[in-house]
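Can anyone check this?
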Amino acid sequence: MPYDSDESFLELVLPRVRAALNEGRRVLVITCARKLDLLADALGHDAGRIDSRVSSTWYGHPYRTLAAYHEYTRGRRTLVIGEPIWEGRSRREITELIRYESVLNAALGPASAVMLCLYDLRRVPPAVLEYNAVNHPLLLGAEGEAASTSFVPPHELVLGGDRAPLPEPGPGAVTIRFTGRELRRLRRSVDDYATAAGMDRNLITSLVISVSEIAANSIEHGAGYGTITMWSADGELICEVADPGGALDDPLPGYIPPEPESPRGYGLWISRQLCDLVELRAEGGVLRVRLHVSMGS
């Protein structure tokens, strides 16, 4: 849903919110505080019937946002109107936000939800707008809603660098071998390395949990052993878990929340929530999962 003025924002959003309320849907609107105020004024007494969030906090981490949407829409008829903040983000952050928008189509597929994505043409970078028709099955134009002829299903989306080899580990990288009997030692080694590197204590916990989850997956579903390589670069601590018996048999690994009764799928899902970036490559019979976590202040 593109727009180019505050007036057109209200023209798009207001009737859809009122219609959803009349249908008994729960309504969530995420945009900047100023536009939330505009919408509240226009809704009048109905403003108290909607949930609202500020974009700057809601969209801080794409895959935590994905989990929050999944939780909000679970078991409810909902309308969600969202508007991420694109300005001031790095190329990597924009890439992951574009990917997240695509994954939403699969992650929320079973939900009884209508999701509308807002794009302020005065602020959204052209490179982002190029993916509108790729990521959204329906587009709103002058003639109303129309199917996108350029839509690409999430499991087929390829963004820049997705198929490029991962860079070699940085200087001073440390590699440790692990087996099922050595997970406790592995967790301690990661903790010690991160502590020595000066990582924030709370972030160390997130890193250790993520590494442990991925290593446990290698032990249970892969070769039963593997290696972890650790190094720091550009304000991050990076851990790569290599599994010589691994394979990428999931087209959306770690992007779709596992069902509560599922015995698999939690490791990558949890790691994507806790880490700043998770990269996967399957090359030469080896599955490499690279975890990036900020060192903190």
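Reply from J.R.: I decoded it. The chain has a mean pLDDT of 92.
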